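User: I've been trying to design a sequence by hand for this structure and keep getting stuck. Would you show me what you'd pick, starting by listing the structure so we're on the same page?

Assistant: Good idea, let's start from the same input. This is the structure you sent:
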């Protein structure tokens, strides 16, 4: 039997709190799950520093990747199978792309990518196309198969229908993470009727469309995404932890370049500090390794590095105030000067952080890289873009909301050490009581 169609003698199931069970019958999928690169995702949390705000949010990218796979499996096997627009040869491609779509994520992705100027999508490509266990398995299907999977994930594939399953305004990725993140954080947002949405999905040559009768379920999904962004993903306390994490990595990198002698040498970071990171080094990094360094660096001679690590490990986070960098740049400059006078390095202890989201991107022709809009399939077989049919979606379409905050260690501004007069000036400027 061809490897691509080989089935396991018995179906394997993973118990899952969101989808109840995740079903695996295909040999290829089972083999991919067993690779070192896929197992690494167990050691990378789906929501980075969010567990410091919502303590339940310790779930991993491994959980999420299996979830996305299961949603796509249900769509192709239960909804699309047998429909004339669906090509059965796209099935394995869809399942593999779903399973592997987040494979290149690094530890605490956001902060990590910012400091080291990396892109997890490039690493996903490198893992699929490079000398890895994942690559060997995909190549057994067909020598060209790794490239096909990589192209679906990179959204450059000619198979637009499969791309839209994994990456569009209403894709399996978003449907899984919204529900999973809601479950693990314990918030009441993020829930929507996925069963209903799956039942009304239809394959078209170049995209997945939604039957008109499913419009209200889709509205609910878009609102839940909007709520999750502001209540969970951009939560100011998680962002505070991320600011500290970013500054730890910055400090370690700067010290390394200054020739500082670490008590605990960052051997795992060397290639990152020198911006010559190779895939094999990258794959060795996970959150367990990062946390180990943070634990050890609490004992460093460098006061900034040790202080930031203690803050992260013990959740002694920065406080924040609302801040508009465009209007308040003078105040920011004044604060920087005062921080310096007070002996608190503003490069590490005074940070502006901005978050923004588009709840639903309407269609803007010619803009590449945008996610595909949602199309409704009307009774007369015509397609209509969702925001033209739904007033609720139209009201939030394409409106970017941005939120800026200024982060700082309030505890250092209230202590009774030196520079009391300057600290009192800072407190007045920040309106701290
Ligand atoms: Zn994902």
């Amino acid at each position: 039997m061809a490897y691509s169609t080989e089935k396991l003698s018995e179906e394997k199931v993973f118990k899952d709190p969101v989808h109840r069970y995740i079903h695996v019958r295909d040999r290829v999928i089972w083999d991919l799950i067993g690779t070192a690169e896929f197992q690494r995702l167990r050691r990378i949390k789906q929501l980075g520093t969010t567990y410091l705000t919502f303590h339940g949010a310790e779930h991993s990218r491994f959980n999420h990747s299996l979830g996305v796979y299961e949603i796509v499996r249900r769509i192709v096997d239960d909804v699309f199978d047998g429909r004339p627009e669906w090509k059965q040869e796209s099935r394995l491609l869809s399942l593999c792309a779903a399973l592997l779509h987040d494979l290149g994520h690094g530890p605490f992705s956001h902060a990590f990518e910012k400091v080291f100027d990396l892109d997890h999508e490039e690493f996903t490509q490198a893992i699929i196309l490079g000398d890895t266990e994942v690559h060997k398995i995909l190549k057994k299907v067909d020598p060209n198969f790794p490239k096909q999977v990589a192209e679906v994930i990179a959204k450059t594939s000619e198979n637009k229908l499969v791309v839209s399953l994994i990456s569009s305004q209403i894709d399996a990725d978003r449907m899984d993470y919204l529900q999973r993140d809601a479950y693990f954080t314990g918030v009441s947002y993020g829930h929507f009727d996925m069963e209903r949405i799956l039942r009304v999905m239809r394959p078209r040559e170049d995209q997945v469309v939604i039957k008109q009768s499913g419009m209200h379920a889709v509205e609910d999904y878009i609102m839940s995404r909007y709520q999750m962004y502001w209540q969970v993903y951009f939560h100011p306390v998680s962002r505070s932890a991320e600011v500290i994490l970013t500054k730890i990595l910055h400090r370690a990198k700067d010290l390394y370049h200054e020739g500082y002698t670490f008590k605990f040498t960052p051997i795992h970071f060397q290639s990152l500090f020198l911006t010559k990171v190779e895939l094999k080094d990258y794959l060795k990094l996970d959150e367990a390794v990062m946390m180990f360094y943070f634990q050890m660096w609490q004992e460093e001679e460098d006061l900034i590095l040790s202080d930031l690590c203690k803050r992260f490990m013990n959740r002694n986070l920065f406080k924040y105030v609302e801040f508009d960098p465009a209007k308040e740049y003078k105040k920011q400059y004044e604060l920087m000067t005062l921080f310096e006078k007070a002996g608190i390095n503003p490069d590490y202890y005074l940070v502006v952080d901005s978050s923004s989201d588009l709840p639903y991107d309407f269609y803007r022709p010619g803009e590449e890289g945008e996610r595909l809009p949602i199309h409704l399939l009307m009774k007369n077989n015509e397609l209509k873009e969702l925001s033209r049919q739904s007033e609720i979606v139209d009201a939030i379409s394409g409106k970017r909301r941005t939120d800026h905050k200024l982060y700082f260690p309030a505890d250092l501004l209230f202590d009774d050490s030196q520079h009391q007069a300057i600290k009192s000036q800072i407190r007045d400027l920040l309106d701290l009581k």
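That's my pick for every position. To get oriented when you compare it with your attempt: Residues 70 and 225 are 20 Å apart (CA to CA). The pocket of zinc ion is lined by residues 64, 68, 101-102, 173, 177 (CB under 6 Å).
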